[in-house]
Write a structure and sequence with these properties.
68% helix; globular; 2 strands; 451 residues; mainly alpha
Length: 451
């Protein structure tokens, strides 16, 4: 496995030390070439070393590397406690919440590299056992939990989800994370009035944690987002909510694709539509899962499969009707959203005309005032496609609308769109083109405002 990296043993050792520093594994700071040589020759690494080594190899090879691939079982006693999937869900929730509340730990988490190794999903037995694990967990408080607490979590999640669409993930994320840490964790540790109530509360908590993950993703805090998504997935499994698990896996696939990991994106997207995650979902949610799977396939070079997934997503959304009992989490997914993701898929496939058409459809069908962040990002992409077609003036006109839409938006993805504007305009910057100079100055001003 190490041979695949093309690295020498000293380079592997240096990379292990870098990853160890990010996660605070001080016992590995002195890793040397000799340690690597011993591991290769069969000496079993101890403590957190196996997981750090997996993560190091995953980053180099741009795909998840499992413990089994490096000759270590997932049941290795030293490695097992550190596995995210084996850490108790409520313990993980409290710990992640503390990281967000403590400034030093939050800065460390915000700066941590995105863990490709963390994208390895557990086996089927883990999913099958999840509801029973939750049922058998002892209560940590005597508070009785009923439908009132479930509704409270749902209302707060809806508020922050809609705020995210308007103002971006940088705005308000800390408040949601504090609510999850202070209130939701307490509810999850309470005494439930019924098994139905327990499942409902765990599902509501999962959606709240998922929104925190999505806001972290939008804020470009990618490792924090991955950890929130993983935690949300664990809660969904303990709620026995297959479509909700599919929804979260779809978000994880979206993030992996955006960060340039097509193989991981394909695997996560395939998991999002696996069995009950797709069959029990409403047509609207199926369309959302399907269009992200289409983009994952496109980034992986699977053109025919990507087009087929797009057509299926179109059919699913067409089947959605006003009488469907859609979950609140898909409130945002309308025709404009499908057009946006379709455009990104066609762009990836090299169909710029088709991408431009779908971006335009997205822009004209969206209620811009309720989706300022997404509207700005769509316009940013649309302008880039126009520029790639050689129509710089049209691109500048579109980007002017994007910059208008960014008023009051605090979003890492919106910021990336502005950085890209300036990058694309760079060859034209000193040619005396007034519209280019105007957009470039406006873009610089927005970059100063968006943190």
């Amino acid at each position: 496995m190490i041979a695949e990296t093309g690295w020498s043993q000293p380079k592997v050792a240096a990379a292990v030390v870098r990853v160890a520093a990010e996660v605070g594994a001080s016992e590995l700071f002195s890793t040397t070439r000799s340690h690597i040589a011993m591991w290769i020759s069969g000496t079993r690494p101890t403590g957190r070393a196996p997981l750090i080594l997996c993560e190091t190899l995953s980053r180099r090879l741009q795909r998840p590397v499992t413990l089994a691939e490096i000759g270590l079982s997932v049941s290795t006693p030293d490695a097992d406690p550190a596995s995210e999937w084996r850490v108790d869900t409520l313990t993980a929730l409290v710990d992640l919440g503390r990281s967000d509340m403590d400034l030093g730990r939050r800065q460390l988490l915000a700066g941590a590299a995105y863990s490709i190794g963390g994208l390895v999903l557990p086996g089927q037995q883990w999913w099958d056992d999840a509801p029973e694990r939750a049922r058998s967990r002892p209560a940590t408080t005597s508070r009785r939990i009923g439908i009132g607490e479930v509704n409270a979590v749902r209302e707060m999640t809806e508020f922050f989800s809609k705020r995210d669409q308007r103002h971006g993930g940088m705005d308000g994320r800390t408040a949601l994370c504090r609510y999850i840490h202070d209130d939701v964790a307490r509810y999850l540790g309470g005494v439930f009035t019924s098994e139905e109530t327990r499942c409902s509360l765990f599902a509501a908590a999962s959606e709240a944690v998922y929104v925190a993950g999505w806001m972290s993703f939008d804020a470009s805090e990618h490792e924090a987002a991955r950890r929130y998504f993983t935690l949300a997935l664990k809660l969904a499994a303990e709620a026995d909510e297959a479509p909700l698990a599919g929804h979260i896996l779809r978000a994880m696939a979206h993030q992996a694709i955006d960060l340039g990991h097509p193989g991981a994106g394909v695997r996560l997207a395939a998991a999002s539509v696996d069995r009950k995650r797709y069959t029990l979902a409403t047509p609207r949610e199926r369309a959302l899962l399907g269009v992200v799977q289409a983009r994952s396939l496109a980034t992986d070079g699977q053109r025919r499969e990507a087009i087929a997934a797009l057509l299926r997503a179109e059919d699913d959304l067409a089947a959605a009707g006003p009488g469907d009992e859609d979950p609140q989490r898909v409130w945002f997914f309308q025709r404009a959203s499908l057009a946006h993701e379709t455009a990104r898929t066609l762009w990836t496939l090299g169909d710029l005309e088709g991408a431009l058409r779908e971006f335009h459809n997205s822009v004209v069908t969206r209620k811009a005032e309720a989706f300022s962040r997404t509207h700005a990002v769509t316009l940013g992409y649309m302008g880039t496609v126009q520029a790639k077609q050689g129509n710089v003036e049209a691109a500048c006109h579109t980007w002017a609308q994007a910059l208008d839409a960014m008023e009051g938006v605090q979003s890492g993805r919106a910021r990336e769109a502005v950085v890209n504007m300036r990058r694309v305009l760079s060859p034209f910057r000193n040619r005396g083109i007034n519209v280019v100079a105007e957009i470039d100055e406006r873009a610089k001003a927005v970059l100063k405002r968006v943190a």
